[in-house]
């Protein structure tokens, strides 16, 4: 048992560092057969390569009573022209959501739209997007990246939210600084609380543990008490049981948010007893890092990935979100 836990921890750390290796990513991209196989495994978690795929999945989930977040996936863009193209794609997404009458949250990494070049670029793109969503049913939501970027991300967010209040921010419970970051936000804000997907030093982060769950719940409670709109973004049943027991979902300002393809059974169960559940739908070509994170945070997903790579049956993923019996 001890050996298994040790191996799982090592596996998780290795996969998270593989995720950061640009040379490996390039190798995957340039090796057609490997690329095809991994893309097949990623399709469990990514709605498709194109905006239409995300919108189509979104439409089906909305029809089943879920709220949705949607992300044109990617991060760490280091070319200004590419940033422009990404913002253009996001603007088209916002416009298509409006035309389809879908109320949604558009999520993104600030490093996808300029933060990896300079802060002002990300800020001006964010303001541009925020201007477009004014008066629509779309809200913008900023994801949280590695801790080396936390200050910059919070700084851009805080400047923008003063002007456009329908921008949300993600906070990571695993960073020891997060209670202070939460306390520094204007109230009420739109906040998503996650455990944290990135590999961080133990000097300033808490690993997956009962202590982290305790910290996570403390943050959610504190955010609700401060009057924020809170997205409880987790697939952890222990967390969900506590959330139900503490009655946090009867507060209309709190909701559950889960990633597409992960624990659809749990999402469906929560939704079927009347709790607000939002599903996070990524689309696009930049699925490599995302796939690595989803496998790293739950190693049995590696078995699933192998099955998905060799299996040739097309699974109707949406079926998993429907309550059966
Ligand atoms: P945890 O990882 O502790 O796992 C607990 C249990 O949940 C597992 O035992 C398993 O049953 C289930 N589970 C968890 N992950 C699973 C998986 N991949 N497959 C199957 N079962 C799984 N992170 C970040 O750093 N910045 C961000 O901006 C975001 N944004 C974000 C948005 C949304 C909507 C969600 C749900 C998550 C994020 N994350 C994120 C990811 C987050 O930080 C975290 O890595 C994952 O949610 C996994 O943590 P859990 O709380 O789910 O539980």
UniProtKB/TrEMBL annotation:
SUPFAM superfamilies: FAD-linked oxidoreductase. One of its GO terms (biological process) is L-proline catabolic process to L-glutamate. Its EC number is 1.5.5.2. One of its GO terms (molecular function) is nucleotide binding. Keywords: FAD, Flavoprotein, Nucleotide-binding, Oxidoreductase, Proline metabolism. It is an enzyme of class 1 (oxidoreductase). Transmembrane segments: none annotated. FAD binds at residues 144, 172, 195-197, 234-235. Pathway: Amino-acid degradation; L-proline degradation into L-glutamate; L-glutamate from L-proline: step 1/2. InterPro entries: FAD-linked_oxidoreductase-like, PRODH_bac_arc, Proline_DH_dom, Proline_oxidase. Binds 1 FAD per subunit. Residues 57-296 form the Proline dehydrogenase domain. Its cofactor is FAD. This is proline dehydrogenase.
């Amino acid at each position: 048992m001890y050996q298994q836990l040790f191996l799982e921890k090592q596996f998780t750390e290795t996969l998270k560092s593989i995720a950061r290796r640009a040379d490996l990513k390039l190798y995957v991209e340039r090796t057609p057969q490997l690329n095809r196989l991994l893309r097949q495994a990623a399709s469990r978690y990514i709605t498709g390569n194109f905006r239409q795929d995300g919108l189509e999945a979104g439409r089906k989930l909305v029809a089943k009573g879920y709220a949705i977040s949607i992300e044109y996936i990617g991060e760490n863009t280091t070319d200004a022209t590419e940033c422009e193209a990404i913002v253009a794609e996001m603007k088209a997404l916002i416009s298509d959501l409006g035309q389809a009458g879908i109320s949604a949250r558009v999520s993104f990494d600030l490093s996808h739209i300029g933060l990896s070049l300079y802060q002002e670029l990300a800020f001006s793109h964010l303001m541009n997007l925020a201007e477009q969503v004014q008066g629509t049913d779309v809200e913008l939501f900023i994801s949280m990246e590695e801790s080396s970027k936390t200050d910059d991300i919070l700084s851009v967010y805080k400047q923008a939210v003063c002007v456009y209040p329908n921008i949300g921010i993600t906070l990571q419970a695993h960073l020891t600084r997060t209670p202070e970051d939460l306390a520094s936000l204007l109230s009420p804000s739109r906040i998503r609380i996650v455990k944290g997907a990135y590999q961080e030093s133990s000097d300033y982060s808490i690993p997956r543990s009962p202590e982290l769950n305790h910290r996570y719940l403390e943050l959610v409670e504190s955010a609700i008490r401060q009057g924020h709109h809170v997205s409880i973004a987790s697939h952890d049943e222990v967390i969900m049981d506590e959330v139900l027991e503490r009655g946090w979902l009867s507060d209309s300002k709190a909701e559950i948010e889960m990633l597409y393809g992960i624990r659809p059974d749990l999402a469906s169960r929560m939704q079927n007893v009347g709790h607000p559940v939002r599903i996070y739908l990524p689309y696009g070509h930049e699925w490599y890092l995302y796939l690595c994170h989803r496998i790293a945070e739950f190693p049995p997903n590696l078995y699933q990935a192998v099955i998905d790579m060799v299996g040739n049956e097309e699974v109707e993923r949406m079926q998993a979100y429907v309550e059966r019996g």
